[in-house]
Structure formats: C-alpha cells, structure tokens
Amino acid sequence: xxxxxxxxxxxLSRGSLSYQELxxxxxxxIADAPVNQAFFEKYALTKQFFTDLGTDVEEFRETxxxxxxxxxxxxGVTADTEAILQDTLDTRHELDMALRNYYRDxxxxxxxxxxxxxxxxKKKKDEQPxxxxxxxxx
Length: 138
Hints:
The protein is mainly alpha-helical. It has four helices and no strands.
C-alpha cells in the first residue's frame, strides 16, 4: 500500500555512520514522524515508539558526550602528570648539583646521595636483546 503523501525520509544509507550522523538521522526521524503518524500506526510504530526513540537518542547523545569528556579529561590528566614529573626531575637535578658540591669532600655521604637519587628506567623495546639471544658481552 502506497501513500502518495508519504515522503520517505526514514532510511539509512548503506555503510557505517559516525555517532554524529546517526544521532542527526534519528533526530530527523523524530522530527518527521508526527506528519506521518497515521501511516506509521498501520505498521505498529506508535507515538510511544518515537517517544522511546527520542529518549534513546538523548541517552546515546549524553553517553557520547560523556565519553568525549572523559577522553579530554584523560588527556589533561596525562599532561598534568607529565608536568608534575618534569618538575620533580628538575628539583632532583637542582638537589643533585647542590649535594654533589656540598658532599664533594665526603665520599660516603656523596655515595649515599647518588644511591638514593638514582632513578631506574625501563629499557626501550629496541634496546632489549631479541628473545632467545644473549646480550653482547663488553
């Protein structure tokens, strides 16, 4: 059964849609639905269906925004952590210069400082010997 007054704007293009495109299409479905309500009711798509769709779209939108906010927050936290780490390393460097100078005539205390201030770093992946091979001997 065809309705001459029905303009089908309720289709999705083939392929994948971005979150934004999907939300925009759902919003357009909801906006166009009231004009075609009688047609939809023949196929059991009641007003409640479009009300539920609107609720789902809003929840989807909020979730997507929440994820984007979390991602931005994570980037900010990483940048803050790196800044704090750099401040700590700068402070360590300043202390190192001062304590090396102060304990230059006290080898025991200088050795204690050098041990305490040592920072163990992970080797980079490309610096590690391949699995099953022994590291080169000096």
